[in-house]
Amino acid sequence: MKKFFFLILIAIYVPSLAHAKQLLPDIIENNTITITAQKTGELGKNYFYCSNGNKCSTEQVVREYYKNNGYNIMRAEYSFWKGIFVLTFLDELYPHTINTKTDNKFFDIPVVNVSDFDIQTKYKYIRKANLQEFVNGQIKKHENSSYIRWLDEWEIEGYKNPIEYFKLPIVQNFLTKIDNKTFCTVISHILELEDKNPIGTPDYIVWNNKEMIFVEVKRKNEKLSPEQIEWGEYLTKNKIPYKIIRVIEK
């Protein structure tokens, strides 16, 4: 009998833990806002209705919200920043591949270790560079050289690789809007990470003529990963505008 009641308690208690609100640092909670959307009653990507009456995902609700408020919105999570990081240090990480076309050769691992090259010299350059011209110049260099997995393989927003995505007008516009200090701040944090993988970077970047915001998208009680929390704290502490947008049911 005792075992029976114990199992009943577990059945009640465990689901309640799964749906409990996550305790987050104040610096994250203070940068959280909520918006509402009508629920469809379905799960997954059709959880909500957008304002046009079509079924849509949580992320689509947020995209619509910002577009309706006059913002540009661009997907900018893990694959995006990994590609930007590799392009930024392309010459240092893959010095022997530049201008050497070897179509059948993969370069998963950089030729040199990050600790082996002069980071400050590169920072000094990109702090003053025209970032759009710089990134596009690195893209052209890469296209004339060898296949690099992080630039040629990972799909982003339906595009076959980051390079194709970076050529889009929305990304090109972003490169004209992001200031050099913010760009360097994000890149320098990727360098600080042990594996140099920017897991946890916010889902989107939005901007208008007045501001640029890094945006993480969640439903009402959806939990943030430790990496997402760490990036949110890092961006906020470095005075880079950051928001968590939670979509809740009307």
Describe the secondary-structure layout.
Elements lengths: L1 H17 L7 H4 L2 E6 L10 E2 L5 E2 L1 H11 L3 E4 L2 H11 L1 H4 L25 H8 L4 H13 L5 H4 L9 H5 L2 H9 L2 H13 L11 E4 L4 E8 L6 H12 L4 E8 L1
Parallel strand pairs: 1-7, 6-7
Antiparallel strand pairs: 2-3, 4-5, 5-6
Structure explained in plain terms:
- The structure is a single chain.
- By secondary structure, the chain is α/β, with parallel strands linked by helices.
- It is built from twelve helices and seven strands.
- The chain has helices at residues 2-18, 26-29, 58-68, 78-88, 90-93, 119-126, 131-143, 149-152, 162-166, 169-177, 180-192, 226-237; strands at residues 32-37, 48-49, 55-56, 72-75, 204-207, 212-219, 242-249.
- The protein has a five-stranded mixed sheet with strand order 1-7-6-5-4, with helices on both faces. Strands 2-3 form a two-stranded antiparallel sheet.
- The N and C termini lie far apart (43 Å).
User: What count of helical segments does DSSP give?
Assistant: 12
Largest sheet: 5 strands, mixed
Q: Average pLDDT value?
A: 85
Question: Which structural class fits the helix and strand makeup?
Answer: alpha/beta
Sequence of secondary-structure elements: HHEEEHEHHHHHHHHEEHE
